[in-house]
Design goal:
The protein is an alpha/beta fold. It has two domains: about 35-125 and about 250-315, Bordetella uptake gene, domain 1 (D-Maltodextrin-Binding Protein, domain 2, 3-Layer(aba) Sandwich); about 125-230, D-Maltodextrin-Binding Protein, domain 2 (3-Layer(aba) Sandwich), CATH 3.40.190.10. Helices cover about 45% and strands about 20% of the residues. It has helices at about 1-20, 45-60, 75-80, 95-105, 140-150, 160-175, 185-195, 205-215, 260-280, 280-285, 295-315, and strands at about 35, 65-70, 90-95, 115-130, 155-160, 180-185, 200-205, 220-225, 250-255, 290. Strands 1, 2, 3, 4, 5, 6, 7, 8, 9 and 10 form a ten-stranded mixed beta sheet that branches. Helix 2 links the parallel strand 1 (about 35) and strand 2. Helix 2 packs across helix 9. The longest helix has 22 residues, at about 295-315. The termini are far apart. The model is unreliable at about 1-25 (pLDDT under 50).
């Protein structure tokens, strides 16, 4: 009996010694992080990625590399992320396009936004800005509505993401007009064609849209939020201009591949939240508001957004591709 007890004690001590001998897991992050961005350089999402990445680098000393993979409604970027190791070093920085709208806009998705990705943290949310070319015949929403009704199906709006598409479709539905949708790989490309006169309208992010407005390349007709924003304080909302119920926002957030370690998810959430709160002026300039939440809260927010976009797509009569 004493022999068995002594052997058991030695075995227990051996396991304890082995556990003490094992090195502690390295602190995260301890090497460069790659931010895979679903949209082109120059977009608001790209600007947010570079801002957050810069803040994380300052906090941790680790470089953050922004890897833009635009096109195919975010499919290219998603594919790169879901195939990566879930170790926290391949981070998906995206919007409601891939995470909430695509499930309703496509009959079949090559990914599941809930099953294949781990919600980490939101970054921001913002209304859209409706812009037109400087010589466009309408200067406000009333004039645009009258023009669209006089020329059904003739006015065009370009859209390089789901928010821009929903912006136009929601206007068609609530204003009772018919616009022709012209698809693009990204919204900056649509804006380029708007400036060149190939299309009439674009529902753009405020950062990109107001840059063109200030440069004299476009004029702003309306914003899509509930109230005016500082970055476009002279631009009235759709609601102000007599279109009740028109309220639409874009949002940006951070995800990891499925089954990411909870400790990594929590640490990255803390880093992103600290980055978001570091410089409130950055978001004010872009027309967005800071948006922070726990991973669990962000997951619930995404579920609600998926349901919201499903209603928008169904009500607007958008046929899934």
């Amino acid at each position: 009996m004493k022999t068995r007890l002594f052997a058991s004690l030695l075995l227990t001590l051996g396991f304890a010694a082995a556990s003490f001998a094992q090195p502690a897991p390295p602190a995260y992050p301890n090497k460069p992080i790659r931010f895979v961005v679903a949209f082109a350089a120059g977009s608001a999402t790209d600007a947010a990625a570079r801002y957050v990445g810069q803040q994380i680098t300052q906090m941790t000393g680790q470089p953050v590399i922004v890897d833009n993979k635009p096109g195919a409604s975010g499919f290219i970027a998603v594919d790169a992320v879901v195939k990566a190791a879930a170790d926290g070093y391949t981070v998906f920085l995206t919007t409601q396009t891939t995470q909430a709208a695509n499930p309703s806009l496509f009959k079949r998705l090559p990914y599941d936004p809930v099953r294949d990705l781990t919600p980490v943290a939101p970054i921001s949310r913002a209304p859209l800005l409706l812009i037109a070319a400087p010589k466009f015949a309408a200067d406000n929403l009333a004039q645009l509505t009258a023009l669209a009704k006089a020329r059904p199906g003739k006015l065009t709006f370009g859209a390089g993401n789901s928010s821009a598409r929903a912006g136009g479709e929601l206007f068609k539905m609530l204003a009772g007009v018919d616009l022709l949708h012209v698809p693009y790989k990204s919204n900056p490309q649509a804006i380029t064609d708007l400036i060149g006169g190939q299309i009439d309208l674009v529902w753009a992010d405020v950062f990109t849209g107001m840059t063109q407005v200030r440069a004299g390349n476009a004029k702003a007709l309306a914003t899509t939020g509930k109230r005016r924003i500082e970055a476009a304080k002279d631009v009235p909302t759709m609601i102000e201009q007599g279109l009740p119920g028109y309220e639409l926002y874009a949002w940006t957030g951070v995800y990891l591949p499925a089954k990411a370690p909870p400790a990594i998810v929590q640490r990255l959430n803390q880093l992103v939240a600290a980055a978001v709160q570091a410089d409130p002026k950055f978001f004010a300039v872009t027309g967005a508001e800071q948006f922070t939440a726990s991973p669990q809260e962000f997951a619930r927010f995404q579920d609600a957004e998926i349901a919201l976009w499903a209603r928008i797509v169904k009500t607007a009569g958008i046929e899934p591709e």
